[in-house]
Amino acid sequence: MRRDRYARRRVTRDAGRATQRPLWRRAGAGVVAASSRLVTIAERVTRRHGDRLIPPAHLRRYYYRTFDPAAFQRAGAGARTELMLRDLRPQHRLLDVGSGIGNLAVALLDDLQGGYDGLEIHAEAVHWCQSAITSRAPSFRFHHADVANQAYNPGGRERPSTYRFPFADGSFDFVFLGSVFTHLFPDAVANYVREVSRVLAPGGTCVASYFLLNDESRAGISAGRSFLSFTVADDSGLFLLHDPSVPEAAIALDEDFIRRTHAQAALEIVDVRRGRWWTGGADDQDVITARRTLARRST
After folding, report:
1. Helix (H, G, I), strand (E, B), or coil: what is residue 158?
2. What's 86's DSSP letter?
3. Nearest CA to 209 among 281, 263, 258?
4. What is the DSSP code (8-state) at residue 276?
């Protein structure tokens, strides 16, 4: 399967570096994964978490870099707050793109009645959510998106630049994408924004996080203050990479490009909450809120 065009372009720095991670890093990751599954087995045997909706230890470690269940709960509470502040209501229909191990779904179980659909590229995470969450709350559904991503799903069959969300037009009142666009190249971003517009009902809301590149954030990166380095530039000027060996591990995107992409997809940006990632604030991303205009976009 061919990769998307931005993934094939030569970057202006570290162009000669091998694109595969060093053997020692890959071996280390394998040891961590194996040991994490041992923790999962131990928790299952001791029933450490009882009947609480806590994902297995190896999935918590994979998504949050810690076994501490509080990290899962904090992530859900933070995402829930972002949506509640933007007027998510009980009757709304919500699409969670990049639903992970269900942190937002669990946080909304007592709030959302209109319906929840999660879309996630990690098949094991989807399976756990289906068996643990959907079994208790059938209106909370989870779907596997087998989309290729070198960092998180290298064997995926679908190209992100052409992937179509498996939902009918106008199916949702809210779409949430937490740290999804931070792992996509510009052509995939444009496709996902178009798909968000397509599945949103007119007047619906999209809330999504980014590493946005503008004069201020570029200055912070150049000064070495960003919590991720983003030192690898592309000839297009549309993005910066953190790690050229795994390009989609973290991608910062040009803000003007993001604004144009939204406008072309009939999504009106109504708010930008500026994160402090470029000053050293770990994981404090920019959050864009956009509304689906009443007019249908041209196709």
Report:
1. strand
2. T
3. 258
4. -
Tokens coding 167: 């939902």
- For 63, phi then psi, to 5°, come to -85, -35
Per DSSP, 183 falls in state G
Alpha-carbon distance of 248 to 211, in angstroms, equals 13
Phi, psi of 176 (to 5 degrees): -120, 130
Query: How much is the pTM?
Result: 0.87
Residue 251 to residue 180: CA distance in whole angstroms: 10
According to the model, what pLDDT value does residue 240 have? Answer: 98
DSSP class per residue in 87-153: T--TT--EEEET-TTSHHHHHHTTT--S-EEEEES-HHHHHHHIIIIITT-TTEEEEE--B-BTTTB
Q: 202: part of which helix (H) or strand (E)? A: strand 200-210
Reduced to 3 states (helix: H, G, I; strand: E, B; else coil), residue 243 is: coil
Phi, psi of 172 (to 5 degrees): -130, 150
Query: Within 10 A of 162 (CB to CB), how many other CB atoms are there?
Result: 11
pLDDT digits (tens, 9 = 90+) for 175-214: 999 999 999 999 999 999 999 999 999 999 999 999 999 9
Give me the residue spans of the domains in the chain.
Answer: 5-292
Rounded Cα distance, 9 and 67, in Å: 37
Q: Sign of torsion, CA 297 144 251 206?
A: positive
Q: Which two tokens stand for residue 92?
A: 């709304």
> What six digits make up the tokens of 123?
């098949």
CATH of the domain spanning 5-292 = 3.40.50.150
Which pLDDT band, with edges at 50, 70 and 90, does 294 fall under?
confident
